[in-house]
């Protein structure tokens, strides 16, 4: 925001006028990391801030201080229109990333006007991501009970949960929790438990669930947490000097980006 001051001479007495000027960037940007199993994708969204229509193209994404390779999934020759009612979406697949924090610079060419009034400029946007490595893969399937061909509403089915460690991490137990939609599923057995996962070995858990309605239902959500077991007074002294600690759950970082 700027103030423009004008001095107007009215005879021998100057008159001062202040005019408020507000300048806004042509776009606002946001980014997001998408995951498909262990594959990672970076999405950048460009949203216009004015009714003025801009033509954008030749988008690029550069990773700094990291060996990650970025494979563009948009056509480099594609031109997109951006204004307050229409956004532009750009997507890259991130390959060979080692899990360390990465700083990115997104840039795109944009233009407005036509003929002799055509203006071309470059817009850039910096951001950083961390904690993006996939540590565990969870595979869930629901099968009808033995002797049945289909899963039916109000009939008990078997839910199989497979947990596989994909990347090295600190050694700890995992707590799994089945979190169903109470409108569509009911868990008929224990919905949580503690497992120990070995590298590249799938740990399978089977429990009973019951669909409450008919149709193609989304599977219940399986949530993982780090499980820190309790310690007896004789095993290791705790920080408060009591020598005993209770078991606790620690959530995994969902990843961060700035």
TrEMBL record:
InterPro entries associated with the record: TRAPPC10/Trs130 (IPR045126), TRAPPC10/Trs130_C (IPR022233)
Top-level taxon: Eukaryota
Low complexity: compositionally biased ranges: 230-246
One GO cellular component, as annotated: TRAPPII protein complex
Annotated GO biological process: early endosome to Golgi transport; intra-Golgi vesicle-mediated transport
Region feature (Disordered): 228-258
Occurrences of domain TRAPPC10/Trs130 C-terminal (ranges): 148-234
Protein name: Trafficking protein particle complex subunit 10
């Amino acid at each position: 925001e700027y103030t423009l001051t004008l001095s107007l001479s009215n005879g021998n007495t100057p008159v001062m006028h202040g005019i408020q000027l507000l300048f806004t960037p042509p776009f606002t940007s946001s980014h997001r990391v998408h995951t498909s199993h262990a594959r990672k994708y970076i999405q950048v969204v460009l949203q216009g801030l004015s009714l003025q229509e801009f033509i954008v193209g030749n988008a690029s994404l550069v990773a700094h201080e990291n060996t990650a390779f970025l494979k563009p999934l948009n056509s480099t020759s594609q031109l997109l229109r951006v204004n307050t009612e229409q956004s532009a979406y750009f997507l890259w697949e991130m390959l060979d990333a080692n899990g360390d924090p990465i700083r990115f610079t997104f840039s795109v060419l944009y233009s407005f006007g036509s003929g002799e009034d055509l203006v071309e400029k470059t817009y850039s946007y910096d951001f950083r991501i961390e904690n993006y490595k996939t540590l565990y893969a969870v595979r869930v399937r629901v099968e009808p009970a033995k002797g049945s061909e289909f899963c039916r509403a109000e009939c008990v089915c078997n839910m199989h949960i497979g947990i596989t460690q994909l990347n090295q991490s600190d050694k700890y137990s995992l707590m799994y929790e089945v979190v169903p939609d109470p409108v569509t599923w009911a868990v008929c057995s224990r919905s949580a438990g503690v497992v120990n996962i070995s590298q590249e070995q799938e740990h399978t858990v089977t429990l009973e669930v019951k669909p409450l309605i008919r149709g193609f239902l989304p599977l219940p959500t399986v949530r993982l947490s780090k499980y820190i077991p309790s310690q007896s007074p004789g095993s290791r002294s705790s920080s408060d000097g009591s020598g005993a600690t209770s078991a606790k759950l620690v959530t995994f970082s969902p990843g961060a980006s700035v």
